[in-house]
Write a structure and sequence with these properties.
This protein is of the alpha+beta class. It has two domains: 5-100, Arc Repressor Mutant, subunit A (Orthogonal Bundle); 105-357, CNF1/YfiH-like putative cysteine hydrolases. The protein is 29% helix and 17% strand. The structure holds zinc ion. Zinc ion (ZN) binds next to loops.
């Protein structure tokens, strides 16, 4: 039988587990240190079923999301089992998250610098914030949010815990920032950072925005070395945050024709129902017939709106080349297990983050 090198590693790891230990899966994950652990472990056990381990093993999904793999219960049980094995979870002695949880991140093919859009998988938050909640003002436990950020930043390949972010206002303010504006994650945000977009030309200054249905946009002009992160909800878009973002980048030497834009996970047309006032706001912004992006529904005064399409259209009006704008096909509302969706959860939720760094 041919076993791939990865499966072999998994199988070797399984063999190393002392008999009779209950925290088999935590140990496997620690030994493998790979996000595909749950699927791979399942495969390895299938290759050579081990009666010692199989009865309590259950693969819940193939995302490398191991908490569900513990047939005995939730994260508390998992934590206790690991502690039984001498692996301490939250006291800093063992950085469990480093091995056990590697979140799935999404990246755009057209952006060549460090960047990522988060999902809600593979964090440590509980309850309605389960699990990778990166939102600062969500009401979630602050320590969990900090840990989630460490997990996310590490998955993005960003060293350190500081980045630029603010309290988003659904407005159109875009700030030009530098090293001084980096801060560790915290729910208390100085008022000067109340904004919906950030732009920089400095290296090692990660820029982040939060979303949970609204459209996150990451911008990169590689020749001038300028980046941006923008929260483009419908209100910010109606207030033309796109224009402020492009102008801020131009002020640092970026050429709009060379700016690449990645439009991340957000609520898509089939799910995004809006009223007349939103259609009117967008029509006056774009100055054109909105019908390709706003389809009338049967209910009076209701429309389905393609906000991602509108954001793309606006950036194109502002001088970006259409071929330089990539839309990631992911609807937050259609995939509530993978993404935070404000509408799906009725506001009981955490947040995604989108981040970019030169
Ligand atoms: Zn949808």
């Amino acid at each position: 039988m041919i076993i791939s090198p990865f499966k072999k590693k998994v199988y070797d790891a399984v063999k190393m587990i002392p008999k009779g230990r209950v925290s088999t899966y935590g140990r496997i994950a620690l030994l493998i240190g790979n996000p595909r652990a749950s699927r791979a472990v399942g495969n390895a056990l299938h290759v050579n079923p081990d009666p010692e381990h199989t009865p309590c093993f259950r693969v819940v999904n193939g995302e490398g999301y191991l908490s569900g793999a513990f047939a005995f219960g939730g994260r508390d049980v998992q934590k206790k089992m690991l502690e039984k094995d001498g692996i301490r979870v939250r006291d800093g002695q063992v950085d469990l998250k480093k091995y056990l949880w590697k979140p799935q991140i999404l990246q755009a093919g057209n952006i060549t610098c460090t960047h990522a859009f988060s999902t809600r998988l593979c964090g440590v938050s509980e309850g309605i914030y389960h699990s990778l909640n990166l939102g600062i003002a969500t009401g979630d436990d602050e320590e969990n949010i900090r840990t989630n950020w460490e997990i996310f930043l590490e998955a993005c390949g960003i060293i350190g815990v500081s980045f630029v972010y603010g309290k988003q206002q659904h407005g159109n303010r875009v700030l030009i920032v530098d090293e001084e504006d980096k801060r560790p994650v915290s729910s208390s945000v100085p008022e000067k950072y109340y904004a919906d977009g950030y732009v920089t030309n400095r290296r090692n200054v990660p820029l982040a925005v939060f979303t949970a249905d609204c459209v996150p946009v990451l911008l990169h002009e590689k020749y001038a070395g300028v980046i941006g992160a923008v929260h483009c909800g419908w209100r910010s878009t109606a207030a033309d945050i796109e224009k402020n973002a492009v102008e801020a980048m131009e002020s640092l030497g970026a050429d709009p024709k060379k700016i690449r834009a990645a439009i991340g996970p957000a609520i898509e047309k089939e799910c995004f129902e809006v009223g007349e006032e939103v259609v009117e706001a967008m029509t006056s912004l774009l100055g054109e017939d909105l019908s390709p992006f706003a389809e009338k529904k049967e209910a009076p005064g209701k429309y389905r709106m393609d906000l991602k399409g509108i954001v793309k259209w606006r950036f194109a009006q502002l001088g970006l080349q259409e071929k330089n704008i990539e839309i990631l096909p992911a609807c937050t509302m259609c995939e509530p297990e993978r993404f935070w969706s404000h509408r799906y959860t009725g506001g009981q939720r955490g947040s995604q983050a989108s981040i970019i760094m030169l």
